[in-house]
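#data-curation
PF: Archiving a pair of folding outputs for the training set. Convention for this channel: one message per protein, sequence first, structure tokens after, nothing in between. First:
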Amino acid sequence: MNALTMPITDGWTIAKRNTLKIRRSPDLLGAAVMFPVVFVLLFAYVFGSVIEIPGMSYKDFLLPGIFVQAVIMGAQITGYSLTLDLQKGVYDRFRSLPMAPSAVLIGQTVSDLLMNLASLVVMASMGLIVGWRVHTSPFEGVLGFALLLLFAYAFSWVTAAIALALRTPESFNNIATMVSFPLMFISNAYLDASRLPTPLRVIADWNPVSTFTQAVRELFGNTSTAMKTSDAWPMQHAIPASLLWIAVMLIVFIPLATRLYNKAVSS
């Protein structure tokens, strides 16, 4: 096995190992799949009865935001799993095996991507049940889910780097919760951001969660000409801006996570 194929094959082995571990952990499965389902039902039937979106149903408006939320929550499994394995000394045992060092992070992010794929399938099925629909072509609908999966993979490297910097599950969970909730709620994921007070509206317009949500809404046709359109560049060019965010995350956090991992296992 040469140096080019070894990281891929070893990474796939680690991915299968992590996927089996997630399947046997009800708490991780619940966080990745069941929690977003609860959010769909809660927002669609409780908040949907009092929130009005001009020119469209709230369920069509809501589901792209729930998809982005599910991706963010699912990607956090990467960070939590890394800190847990570090704490248990799993990576010390990996170092004694004839495997590529990069396989651990590759396998972790790939298994996280598979979990996000399963989560999106559940979300889309639940969305169809409650009344959400894709109003564009099948090709654009597929592109919407592909963009979500690209975001999921890139964001997994972000959470991996944060987790390897913190190194403990408790610290990672605290930081992840403290950061993810403001990102989700000061955005256009659940409500029309144009109705927010000016300072919060500016933050929401430049929030990457808003960018990805708007991009997915455009690809799924879950938009309305009756809604006020923001003049902010990410909202006017949501799909290119989303691709730019993905490129930045991959370029910055793959080398950073790799360096932090090498530091963590060598210390």
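PF: Second:
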Amino acid sequence: MTAPARRPARRAAPLLALALWALTSCGIPTTGVVEAGGPAGGVVPTVRVYFVVDGRLVGVPRRVAAPVDVRSAVESLLQGPTRLEGAKRMTTLLSPPAPALPTSPADTDTDLEGGGRAAPIDAVRVSDEGGRIVVRLSPWAGKLTPLAVDQVACTAVAAQRVIRPGDEPRPVSVAGGDGRTFQGTAARCPAG
């Protein structure tokens, strides 16, 4: 009984060799390594920034430069809402840091790049003081309302959640351009 079982295997061996030869010699020459740009970048980091709609905070996702930090998140907030977000009645209570610049022509629902203004150099300084994140805004910020403070504090809290997922965010102090400092916590930030 073993002899008939070997015959099909003997017939299959030449067919298998022919199939392997066909696959390996398809006529495409080897090229070696071809340089075609940089390495894959992966996921672009996003953080939530908080704008105001009808007197309440609303978080929207923004792309930020890697690595995510509190300063880059607050600078993204200071750019203001995009045209599309403005059309959804989103606004900011923070004084505009610079004249409006045009946004990209493709200002659509997928636009996460930020708003139409560039934050001035040194508009934001962030430090860690005794377990508290302190966000200092330059004098252009002027007098801050409680809701404007919450915009900055909640954006700083959201950045902390991206930096250290699962950790409890540290409290945030916001120092305005008029020298006054306000305290903020994650408890005052809307979910999501």
